[in-house]
Specification:
about 500 residues, alpha/beta, 5-stranded mixed sheet, about 5% strand
Length: about 500
């Protein structure tokens, strides 16, 4: 193993270096602001997702405060761990130095991972748990040591506390086990002990879901109605074709796992991959949900290619070089390594009416700090008495998260919002004299208050469309029952 460490270390350092330059640019994404916000309300679950991301956010805060680089270090470390595991899987499958190099390069060349390992979201950790699970299962196949089944159960349990999509991974592996020694593993008590460990780790979230009327189901329903039902089924498959070089290597890996004489003892992994991919497609999932299967396929593909080219090893290096260089030009599209002005030039974007249309992810990193500064300017204009009885009301979780996280240095009060998890934290001071409304449209604020004053329409050159041209109001004299108004909105919190 020691002779492979220089390869793994060099690739890991390169991954860290690229992500580091991307992590420091622009600002927090709206989803990051939500995930940091829930870290200040630690619980066994949240309205949109399980609790692990909140716990990691709390650790991030203890170590780095709300530093952009500090927060994003965690998904980057998850990405580096995935790269290392990919290399280790290649070794477990019988690969030598060229296979380990190619496997690691595939992780570096797979463009979606740069986005996934930049943003502080559950996705990076989900991919890590999937890859770790495959690694422990392959270790078990090689050693038949029961400790790897236990580690597999712990991985699944932690994965469930991070993102529910790992259930699809577990289902795929369950089916795959029938193809490992004709399903004999189902006779082992250690497999059921592993499953029990997973359940025990996940149990607190099950209890929380029960106590909170299963918001998971409401969220899935809203997600399906608002996003997933609009996805063309063919897009799921076509999205995989956007990365042809890594896809070819992964297909080599899949076929090797299924039919290669040398790798056929790992057939259960190949079957699991097919089941996972098919299930995600049938569920009309977003394409990136399935990207977590690729590290295991990169590893098996690299091993197969190394074997096929054993008499002409130079061609393995050629494939490695082409795979990486084909992706380099596109890295700025996946993680913001370029300053925004350079990125606009790189993409040949044109300014129209004072606006530059960025992609969704990048546009979602702009405008938040400016919103907070404007809210603070209104808040500071209030009298001391009004400040003590002031509520900051944001329309969505991005705006609320910005006020909560970016507003800390300004000494702003905690915001409220009726969107997602923020709704669960309540309406704050229901007897407040003054409300500062951010992003809520005129009919919404006029329904609640007798006196409404428009302070400013907030615009931003780079911000996403829904955060450009949003109103900032100062409101007084509520004319409805705030608690009833808040409670009645429960069915709409995911709208």
């Amino acid at each position: 193993m020691k002779k492979y460490l220089p390869i793994i270390f060099s690739l890991s350092f390169l991954k860290l270096l690229i992500q580091w330059f991307g992590n420091k640019n622009y600002g927090f994404h709206r989803d990051e602001l939500l995930h940091l916000s829930v870290s200040e309300h630690l619980d066994w679950g949240f309205m949109e997702f399980p609790p692990l991301i909140g716990a990691i956010g709390k650790v991030s805060y203890w170590l780095f405060d709300y530093s952009l680089l500090g927060v994003r270090l965690f998904p980057t470390l998850a990405g580096i761990a995935i790269l290392i595991l990919c290399c280790l899987i290649a070794k477990e499958l019988g690969g030598k130095s060229r296979a380990i190099l190619l496997a690691g390069i595939c992780v570096l060349a797979f463009l979606p991972f740069y986005r996934n390992h930049t943003l502080f979201q559950p996705v990076a950790f989900d991919q890590l748990f999937w890859t770790l699970g495959f690694y422990f299962f392959i270790k078990y196949i090689n050693s038949e040591h029961k400790k790897f089944l236990i580690l597999l159960g712990i991985t699944l349990g932690l994965g469930l506390m991070n993102k529910y999509t790992i259930l699809v991974w577990a289902f795929g592996l369950f089916v795959g086990l029938f193809f490992y020694k004709k399903g004999n593993l189902f006779k082992s008590k250690w497999l059921y002990l592993s499953a029990l460990i997973s359940l025990l780790i996940f149990l607190p979230n099950i209890v929380w879901q029960t106590q909170n009327k299963f918001p998971l189901l409401k969220h899935l329903q809203a997600l399906n109605q608002n996003q997933l039902h609009e996805i063309n089924p063919f897009e799921f498959g076509l999205e995989q074709l956007n990365f042809p070089f890594t896809l070819i290597i992964s297909l080599f890996g899949l076929f090797a796992l299924l039919i290669d004489n040398y790798l056929r003892k790992y057939r259960a992994v190949g079957v699991a991959v097919i089941v996972i991919f098919s299930a995600m497609w049938l569920l009309n999932s977003k394409a990136y949900y399935v990207f977590a299967i690729y590290p295991a396929l990169f590893a098996s593909g690299a091993v197969k290619i190394e074997s096929l080219l054993s008499k002409k090893p130079v061609w393995t290096y050629v494939i490695t070089f082409i795979t990486l260089t084909a992706s380099i030009y596109f890295i700025p599209e996946a993680t913001p390594i370029l300053p925004i002005e350079k990125y606009v030039e790189y993409k040949n974007l044109e300014e129209k009416n004072g606006r530059v249309e960025l992609t969704g992810d990048y546009a979602d990193m702009f405008g938040w700090e400016e919103q907070v500064k404007l809210v603070d300017s209104v808040y500071q204009s209030l009298s001391s008495k009004e400040k003590k009885n002031c509520v900051l009301w944001a329309e969505n979780y991005g705006e609320a998260g910005a006020l909560k996280i970016l507003g800390k240095p300004y000494g702003l009060p905690d915001p409220i919002s009726r969107h997602g998890s923020f709704w669960a934290w309540g309406p704050g001071n229901k007897d407040a004299d003054v409300w500062i409304s951010l992003g809520n449209e005129k009919p919404s604020v006029e329904y609640v208050f007798e006196k409404v004053e428009l302070v400013k329409m907030i615009t931003h050159k780079y911000a996403i469309g829904e955060e450009n041209g949003i109103p900032l109001y100062i409101c007084r004299k509520p004319k409805i029952d705030i608690e009833a108004w808040w409670k009645d909105y429960e069915e709409h919190i995911f709208d």
